[in-house]
Amino acid sequence: MKSFLFTAFLVLLSAFPMLATDLYLPAFPEITVYFGTSESTTNLTLILFVATLAISTLFWGPISDKYGRKPVAMAGGICFFVGSLCCIFAGSITQLILFRVLQAIGGGSTNMIATALIKDVYKEKQQEKILSIVQGIALIGPAVAPVIGAFVMRVTSWQGIFVIQAVMAAILVFGTIRLKETLQEPLDLSVFHALGRLLVVCRNRRFTLLVINFSLIPIAIMAFINASTYIFQNFFGLSGQTYSFFFSASALAMMAGTLLYLPISKLLGRTVSVYATFIEVAVAGLLILLIGDRSPYIFIILIAFTSFCACVIRPLGIFLSLNAQEKDTGSASSLINFTSLLASTIGMASLSFFSNYLHGVGILYLLIGIVAAAMFAICFKKV
């Protein structure tokens, strides 16, 4: 089970939601023009995708504790595949939004299943290492996805983006066929009572507080991702291709932070790493407000360094949360991913309150960094 192919499958599962998001970003301007709609309406294809992804994750986790990881991964992959095909033939922005929701219903199973599989297969000492490796490599896809998306937009239309997503889903389904079931003790409960295990896990105070604390940073990160197209192309006047390279710099920084988590945490210690990350996010937000609008290079340096620091503690947050809950791994994985995705949705939606997206990102970084550091100091002090 602990083979190269299994690790590659975990990477695909972990990367799937972000790939479905980042590959799609360069198509926003063309989709807006194609359907003759507003930027805010086009944004709904992303916001509702992430919101549905979060909600569906809550369903898939407990179901995987009852029926197993393999059938849930298979059902989710097929659903995403069908949704991708429907998106290709969408005749209106309303249809595209609905088909993106169908994609998200299936996609909600992938990230959760990856987290559950790691807990199922690896012992506690190995979990932290494999989480760092899988999460880090998984971010390579989002790093190059905007570049691929921008290239696709140059040689074909926005529908080509969904052709690629359909192929990705087909590969996922094929990989699931070869997957051996890892759930050792299925829940002997009805579906209704299996879903009720979510409440049992939520009553674990340490688990819940850890999940909330480490899910604050995605609010800021996703706010930037959602606004990145408009900041770089509209505010700074960059082309779609140039924007993709700037965005990839941030994604590569995220990947590097995740892969370097283990050596950095050993050097600084877990507690110092957490505090340093939260404080850096706040400082970066202040600098974005003060000098971020002077140049796209200044802005991306601040964003990339923050992305790096935020992802240094990403595997730690998942590891600590998973091991705060002894049983109900599927439900715990669901809640971890649901909270992170919910935070991402809040981050995207919060930008609607700002007329200047760049300043909005700066304000969110500043406030969230302060709140996350204060919450960690009050609830945990050290880990």
User: For the record, what CATH class applies?
Assistant: Mainly Alpha
Average pLDDT score: 87
Query: Which blocks of ≥5 consecutive residues have pLDDT under 50?
Result: none
**Architecture, CATH level 2?**
Up-down Bundle
In CATH terms, what is the fold-level topology?
Growth Hormone, Chain: A
Give the beta-strand count.
0
Rg measurement, Å: 20 Å
Kindly name the structural category. Answer: mainly alpha
- Secondary-structure element series: HHHHHHHHHHHHHHHHHH
Describe the protein.
With 383 residues, the chain is mainly α. It has a single domain (4-181, 188-379), classed as Growth Hormone, Chain: A (Up-down Bundle), CATH 1.20.1250.20. It has 18 helices and no strands. Helix 1 (4-22) runs antiparallel to helix 8 (159-177), helix 3 (39-67) runs antiparallel to helix 17 (329-350) and helix 6 runs antiparallel to helix 16 (314-323). The protein starts with a helix and ends with a helix.
Spell out the blueprint of helices and strands:
Blueprint: H1 4-22, H2 28-34, H3 39-67, H4 69-88, H5 93-121, H6 124-138, H7 140-155, H8 159-177, H9 191-202, H10 205-214, H11 217-235, H12 240-259, H13 261-268, H14 270-291, H15 296-312, H16 314-323, H17 329-350, H18 357-379
Helix pairs in contact: 1-5, 1-6, 1-7, 1-8, 2-3, 3-4, 3-5, 3-9, 3-17, 4-5, 4-8, 5-17, 6-12, 6-16, 7-12, 9-17, 10-16, 11-12, 11-15, 11-17, 11-18, 12-15, 13-14, 14-15, 14-18
